[in-house]
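User: My collaborator sent over this chain with a note saying "see what the structure looks like." That's all I know about it. Can you take a look?
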Amino acid sequence: MASLADDYAIARQAKMRPVIEIARSLGIPDDFVESYGRYKAKIGLGALGTLKDRPLGKYVVVTAITPTPLGEGKTVNTIGLALGLNRIGKRATCCTRQPSLGPVFGVKGGAAGGGRSQVLPMEDINIHLTGDIHAVQAAHNLGSAFLDNHLHHGNRLGIDPNGIYWRRVMDMNDRALRSVVVAHKAEGVERADGFDIAVASEIMAILALAASHKDMRARLGRMIIGRTTAGKPVTTEDLKVAGAMALLVRDALCPNLLQTIEGTPAFIHTGPFGNIAHGNSSILADQIALRCSEYVITEAGFGADLGFEKFVDIKCRTSGLKPDAAVIVATVRGLKVHSGKFRIVTGKPLPEKLLAEDLESLRAGAENLAKMVEIVHMTGLPAVVAINRFPSDSEREIEEIRSIAKQAHAEGCEVSDAFAKGGDGTKDLAQAVVKACDRKSDFRLLYDSAAPLQQKIETVATMVYGADGVDYAPPAEEKLKLYTDWGLGGLAVCLAKTQLSISHDPNLKGRPKGWRLPVQDVRVSAGAGFVYPLCGAIMTMPGLSAAPAGELMDIDENGDIIGLTGKK
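Assistant: Without extra context I'll predict from the sequence alone. Here is the result:
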């Protein structure tokens, strides 16, 4: 089995096809293909008009159990499932998010899949791609510049300096910039500010949800940067900066087309933060892929309680698309961790006992998988469990997960060897997904848009997370009333919480019971179309570890990249 250190070597051995050939294989006319070199391209939005009369393919979302800090291989299996479907004679395309530079140089290293289940060229995907994240960063910070310039020149709008919601962004992990003071008195109005990571920008969430350039422009103008001293919202349209922002992200709205290691088409487009945003790739990429493929495999961030719920209640609510099935990625080690007996720390070796056969711990953590299947079933979709195999997994442990999945009424459960074998390692999983998609589903959203914001929050907290109820801090109650008074009560809710537990507390493993969800504050992304309640400590600007992955990265004498996986 390939090791993580072999990812780049495996990728370099692959024979890639020119991206124009990938586009032609999808039936996309050359006129809509804007190449960025030989192996990546943007697809013009006019392609949707040309493709509109084609039937939609099957729509499959890949989610996971509650992940450990190392992840459970969701991206690898999203790509691998598309490879497997093509191996069994189905035309499949995968859609994933673009990695942020912060995690690439921080904890994860490369994030374009791994082993024999990758999207290529992996170095471009991880470092700049077509510049979309940089465009988001520039547009967002242009808004910041206009805001502080407005304050400097007399504050005609009457913005309350203590009521500003808009922070600056950069695409890097830099804890020193979490809280800063801007504009010393000689340069303007001195005030407290801070930086979030660029993928946490509302602009990134907008790119992922916008239906067209017109829709994107309107959404950019609805973004709320703060409030006046009279308590009224102030938008980027009020600041007269929304149009200039749109110029900077005009091209970024167009999806990026690439290919897998086996030549399967792949769209990598947008990378909204998985906590304070919806953590899914773009609607536009999915729509184009669905008109060009029999099966589209799209990835939702983190576990079914986070990315999948937001895929349903935000992404599908916005697009109107109805998925056919969901795949839940599970690992033996991940379920053992949910027993509460083991602790994984990034940058340190896995505990030896975690790698030994331990059916008792596996069963103890199994309720997490059962809950994820239950969440999928709440939406009326069939759930297929993919067991992401690792070398330390025993056959008895694999069979135990099969039994757990069956007891939870999953529609199928298959081992995935995508990392080690590519498409050959996912053919059984592909067959199970085809079978699930052929079943009639009854897809439904989990709450009505017209319901009060508080009711929507409580629906997600109690139904999806399993909380006994919700406790609102005074600032949260005030914000919910304020947003309702502003006419924003019809927005979706995008709960921001830890990805390491179904609850708000990362220390509560498995399927926590007997707890209540605390909501400390509620913020608004009016352009994206949701409010986001803050449940527990949420980090919007990560920091680097004592030994960041970037320490192992370099170039050789030929300019070739070394160590992009972040592993020795």
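A starting point for your reply to your collaborator: The two ends are 16 Å apart (CA to CA).
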